[in-house]
Design a protein that fits this description.
elongated; single chain; Molybdopterin biosynthesis moeA protein, domain 3; seven-stranded mixed sheet; six-stranded mixed sheet
């Protein structure tokens, strides 16, 4: 796939494939990262307490300060013994129980031939023992002896080795990780109380349009409440970024330019909604040509066909460029384009190693009409059929302005560029909202 820059002529004459748009954005973000690093302006690193590190990007590899496990221990409740006794040709093994080892209370005695030790999960393996037989595989011969069939295990079974999970000095969590609850638990298990993370990106958001009203105001004729900034705030909060809310800007070139300059001065990224179509009052294109290198794209997707993307460079008093996204004005299109393009770019700019959300599949519970030649993001509800298989059903009308279709859904059905109509019973790709939106 060839590289495409924001002001490439192809963007003005044809609809761009979703994958082409994604690659163009990634290439430009990489350029910003390299430019920042070469100028000595790489993203700052800060140290935060472990309980404040959720959804932050790990800046450096977390090296384990200890071996995990710290010593050989039992993987389950059972009886520990020297596995050499399994070398016999006898089918049945009989061992004398001489004591008990508890987790956190090591057994100090020696285990001799023909002897074993009752042991609990996590207890240190006593000297001379290398194998554990699970308790449920044994029979009590009397209060002092157990017997078991040696075919049920082999030497070394059910023993966790020192450093088997993590070795001291080796990476426990790699840099670039978007930290999840399990990562915080892992760090805590190593005794690590603080983590080095990337500075939060500063992201400015604004909505443009004379038709927009602020919450709490009465709606005049032809007016609508601005929902996009609230959707974007929720989306950005999922990534734990610093949000700069620049409010509503009217359809006036001077006002828009002043708002863009002010926002770009404060932020690493500016996201606007509205004003990127071909309407007479859409002044974004004119202003962007004055302030930076921004392309205006028609993307072969539904919803979210018009979008602007690039960098704002001619900002007084600021040496670094500000990444810019001009999203459509329709509420659903705003969320879809954020999901498809903006989210990955923000993670990439902030140093994340994994930027694309995972996909899975489900069975379509109904026919879905789809025109080949564009990628579609249908809002849907994932459930299960009578056989327990995952099924998905579209949430009614899929218009770009029907925000209810997003509110009721728990996933996207993603229908590929070359895909046509879907029949009931066909498998389709889905992306879950949870942890994403």
């Amino acid at each position: 796939m060839k590289s495409i820059s924001p002001n490439d002529p192809i963007l003005l004459t044809s609809s761009l494939h979703v994958d082409e748009a994604r690659k163009a954005i990634s290439d430009l973000v990489n350029g910003l990262i390299h430019e920042s690093a070469s100028n000595g302006n790489a993203t700052d690193i800060e140290t935060v307490p472990l309980d404040q590190a959720i959804n932050r990007i790990l800046a450096r590899d977390l090296l384990s300060p200890i071996n995990v496990p710290a010593a050989d221990n039992s993987a389950m409740d059972g009886f520990a013994f020297d596995g050499k006794c399994l070398d016999t040709t006898d089918t049945e093994i009989s061992l004398r129980v001489i004591g008990t080892a508890f987790a956190g209370k090591p057994y100090d005695g020696q285990i001799g031939s023909g002897q074993c030790l009752k042991i609990m999960t996590g207890a240190l393996m006593p000297s001379g023992c290398d194998t554990v037989i699970p308790q449920e595989f044994t029979t009590a011969k009397d209060e002092h002896f157990i017997i078991f069939d040696q075919s049920q295990l082999k030497r070394g079974d059910n023993r966790r080795l020192c450093g088997e999970d993590l070795q001291e000095g080796k990476p426990a969590i790699a840099a670039g990780r978007l930290l999840r609850p399990s990562d915080l638990g892992l760090a805590a298990s190593l005794g690590v109380a603080k983590l080095e993370v990337k500075r939060k990106l500063r992201v400015a958001i604004l909505s443009s349009g004379d038709e927009l009203s602020t919450l709490g105001q009465p709606l005049d004729a032809g007016k609508i409440y601005d929902s996009n900034r609230y959707s974007l705030t929720g989306l950005l909060n999922r990534l734990d970024l610093e949000i700069i809310d620049c409010g509503i800007v009217r359809d006036d070139p001077a006002s828009l330019k002043a708002a863009f300059i002010e926002a770009a001065t404060k932020a690493d990224v500016l996201i606007s909604s509205g004003g990127v179509s071909v309407g007479e009052a859409d002044f974004t294109k004119q202003i962007m040509q004055e302030l930076g290198d921004v392309g205006f794209w028609k993307i072969a997707m539904r919803p979210g066909r018009p979008m602007a993307f690039g960098t704002l460079k001619a900002i007084p008093g600021k040496s670094s460029a500000t990444l810019f996204f001009g999203l459509p004005g329709n509420p659903v299109a705003v969320m879809v384009t954020f999901y498809q393009f903006v989210r990955a770019a923000l993670l990439q700019l902030n140093g994340a190693s994994q930027t694309e959300p995972p996909l899975t599949q489900a069975i379509s519970a109904e026919p879905i009409r789809k025109k080949a030649g564009r990628t579609e993001f249908q809002r849907a509800i994932l459930g299960r059929n009578a056989d327990g298989k995952p099924t998905v059903k579209i949430t009614g009308s899929q218009g770009a302005g029907i925000l209810r279709s997003m509110s009721e859904a728990n996933c996207f059905v993603i229908l590929g560029h070359d895909q046509g109509n879907v029949a009931a019973g066909d498998w389709v790709d889905i992306a879950l909202f949870d942890g994403l939106l």
